[in-house]
Amino acid sequence: xxxxxxxxxxxxxxxxxxxxxLIFSLVHMAPGGPIRVMLGQLQDPELIERLRHxxxxxxxxxxxxxxxxxxxxxxxxxxxxxxxxGAPVAALIGQRISVTMELAxxxxxxxxxxxxxAGIVSALRQNRLSDHVARLIALxxxxxxxxxxxxxxxLIFGVYLRQPWGAGGFVxxxxxxxxxxxxxxxxxxxLGTAYAAIIMRMMRSAMLDVMxxxxxxxxxxxxxxxxxxxRQDIVKNALIPVITVIGNSIGYLLGxxxxxxxxxxxxxxxxxxxxxIFRRDFPVIQAVVLFIVVLRIxxxxxxxxxxxxxxxxxxxxxxx
Amino acid sequence: MSAVLLSIEGLVTRxxxxxxxxxxxxxxxxxxxGRESLGVVxxxxxxxxxxxxxxxxxxxxxxxxxxxxILFRGEDLLEKxxxxxxxxxxxxxxxxxxxxxxSLNPTLTIGEQIxxxxxxxxxxxxxxxxxxxxxxxAQVGIPEPEQRVKHYPHQFSGGMxxxxxxxxxxxxxxxxxxxxxxxxxxxxxxxxxxxxLVEGLKQEFGMGTFLITHDLSVVATFCDRVVIMYAGxxxxxxxxxxxxxxxxxxxxxxxxxxxxxxxxxKARLDSIPGEVPDLISxxxxxxxxxxxxxADERCWRExxxxxxxxxxxxxxxxxAGELG
Amino acid sequence: MAERRVQTGDYExxxxxxxxxxxxxNFKKNKLSxxxxxxxxxxxxxxxxxxxxxxxxxVEQFDAPRGVRNPMPPLSRDVDGRLFLLGTDKFxxxxxxxxxxxxxxxxxxxxxxxxxxxxxxxxxxxVAGYRKGTWVDELIMRLVDIMLSFPTLVLAIALVxxxxxxxxxxxxxxxxxxxxxxxxxxxxxxxxxxxxMRAVVLQEMAEDYVVAAKVTGASGLRILTRExxxxxxxxxxxxxxxxxxxxxxxxxxxxxxGLGLQPxxxxxxxxxxxxxxxxxxxxxxxxxVPGGLITxxxxxxxxxxxxxxxxxDPRQARRVRR
Lengths: 320, 324, 322
Fold this sequence. Notes:
With 320 residues, chain A is mainly α. Chain A is 77% helix and 0% strand. Chains in contact: A-B, A-C, B-C.
């Protein structure tokens, strides 16, 4: 088990390095830089040159990369150029990350609370009406783009039903948990629906796989009661692959939050990176994308480790 | 010998697949007395496992038990509710399956899996259950049972796992023990040990045993009587020594002829020409006729009934006893 | 014609159909897949015959009658009495026409990007699988892993950010915006193809017929192309159709964020974005029409993809259950 962990961790490091290189290159490949955005119509070449030098943009690319990496390791993510002039990016991310995290967590909770029981029931009642209905709903959930769903929800709850929490916007925790959660319900539903659908399908599929296994037959042959079999043989084994999917799909939540935050005007990290792209704010784009990727890699790592803990075959090695 | 423990009468089990109806068990009857050991021999597809699963009422979609009676201790199992069957399974009738690795839950320890069976059938305290589980493991010859009880199935070797499965099966001292090819995946020395173990348990607990195998050599040492099945039908039945001495059915002779002398080991069945038949489209006459060296017009046209040429013997063949 | 065997418990039954017949038989039975195919067909028709179907020029702006402002609801008329079946957008452009042309672009993007992604992914995966264990394999798969560690939308956004919004100049060539987006999406999704392709290639190479071919002296490359690749086609088709749905989603998301096709070109995602400002006007048609079309397209491809997968994978279609 120890080797398993070590292998996974070591593998992550070069991945991170190359990812950072990739991000850096992508960002700096972009035509037009922050300078043009900042100066707007002004075309004074001397001013442009001075700004470039000031921002360190006139150095050769590899030097810029090295500087960036060096700073990163010291916790310095650079300073925003156009979105919030001069603000340390780390601080910007820090402020906004809690919003994104709350949204993602809320989405996940709602999604799992619905998807896992739905998947279990669907598999147990395979091919009956409830199964077909559940599968159709899951299909719809996967097919509706989250921004469309979000806008429709705003239309229903914000416009037609005139609920104050139905129009987006964020209320920080300091002003009350109730309001805070209320404003996050619709975004969480919009973001979490596709996630829930994927999980539900996976759960159902894993359950059906396990139900056909020999050890379920053994349990029945020993006269074990059906509820016990469902709990200890079927669900327990079916959850293992599902946990992996849950973890891996968090990437979807991270990406989707960009769109959801835009729709509901939430001051999160996704919102920040979109602004950064439109305004060519390299430090912001680099830092946020890297952050998301690092998060994703870390989560994958955690999922792998969890898998190792859950499956006794990995936890305890082979036959003696 | 004690009274009849299990009596299967005219059992018909069919599978309704998209490609047609599979007549897995086609009107078979056999019986087993308490403390007796019956061997059921045949190639894969002959219906032997399906017979056992029918007794346990574990036949599932698309399979269905369509006819006959299964009398266990005088009561027809086919008339019982699922709830009643659950109380019988594992307690009065127990089954040991072929592939021990896939037959055990990989996420529960061996101890937990055995204790669960005890929990469902016996009224024991938790402590007593664990004590009994450890004892069972010791009884089936697993060393260091107190440690092993906390191990997971994949941490056992094949032979040990099979012993654990046997432990699970005998945990509630069943009257009837069904073994479905328990040693096919194990090598010869381990196989011998397993059968020694089961023989010992059989004597100690006085169980009737129903052994399913495709290996005639194993049957010789372990069973009192043998039933030979082919393509869903019983083709011969005899006390074991008589079967070896004077086999009546050409198929039996084919099986016996393919046992290598003295060394033992697995019976190789490829000395019988032809292949296992397609159970959806069977010939009108005797099922074995396409592969039988003695087959004639009548064999092809008419199905031979199961007759009893001598007490304790049955055979279904127009050419019974004729040498080829 | 490949023969297939079905297992039920201990029994092996011979099946007497070719893979293609088997597939069609299964596919026909599944009503949902047929529905999916029908939807996709309708979309294809809409895309191909767009100029004939659209009542107006999608970029032409019309004036609303006195006292009314754009966007107008469905069945309204403009100042000259023209009828707009699905209403107008904020600039007075016909929603129906824009929707039809927008759908056409959506499909063009989907098909184009999947095609490129397939080519890229299949090439990478086949090479990696064929040279399994060597540094080529390692390199390609590491690259694939790294690309997969980016959530798809993030990667697509980053790539768009890199290439720039609007058309792109690479040396003497100018890539139109459309092509650029196709490339972005293709690059984003090719790692998935590569992975699947590699797995399938490895699987096929372990099969007996490949070993047999090698023994009879067939050269490596010949084995690869003739035998192995042909057998990977069903998997590629299934993956392709499943990914069509997600590529549509990604390209719509990009449009919605303003990173896709630029105005005034009709784009369903962009229409949704424009609609946000008019929600409190109650401009539901501005939302439902483009959103519904996107959703239906994704649904159609999902149904089709699921159906193809279930029909081509015999094991999936016929498992025996409780």
